[in-house]
Amino acid sequence: MAGRVPFLSYDQMAKIASDFLQRFDYENSPPIDIELVLESSGLVLVPMKNLFRNYGIDGFLSADLKHIYVDEHQYMHSMSLRFRFTLAHEIAHSIAHRSLLTTLGVKEPADADGGLRGLSQPEYDAMEFQANMIGGMILVPEVDLIQQVRQIIGLLGQFDSIDEKIDQAAILLCRRYKVSKDVVAIRIKYEEII
Predict the structure, then answer these.
(1) What is the Cα–Cα distance from 8 to 126, expressed in whole angstroms?
(2) Weakly modelled stretches of the chain, pLDDT under 50
(3) Which residues of 162-187 are buried (b: 16+ CB within 10 A; e: fewer)?
């Protein structure tokens, strides 16, 4: 069973996200309207009562790859950063792990909670890492991020360490993308912009 989660390099993940955004002509127009992207890609959003409380997950993609189930509380607060990231994360699964997920068949939240049946923990962790990275790339497109960081780089000179500069850049840019500071910081770090 091992080895079914494909290894994706950073460049491969970036290409998946970029190609996906180009399909909807969104690559350089943040903040990305992730609900519109979801609809445009043919996915249906389904709120599920107590999903997080009962299973410890924010969302999951159905076995037929047509429905994204999200915690009802998150759905009711759909402007939240966490909700936006959950949608992007599940969209990332739908494009990067399509064949694997249809094979494994997530039919209920318990299948997604703590690892999918038939996957080892390292495989599950790799799949989640990839969905997190691609989801972040969808919400914070590369070209725009590089342009924005170049515009604010002068404001970051007062900070000594690269980590401090990344953190401050993320604070300045997170509202633009309607994501958490952590999502922007991770994108900046992996893009090696600063």
Answers:
(1) 9
(2) 1-3, 114
(3) eeebbbbbbebbbeebbbbbebbbbb
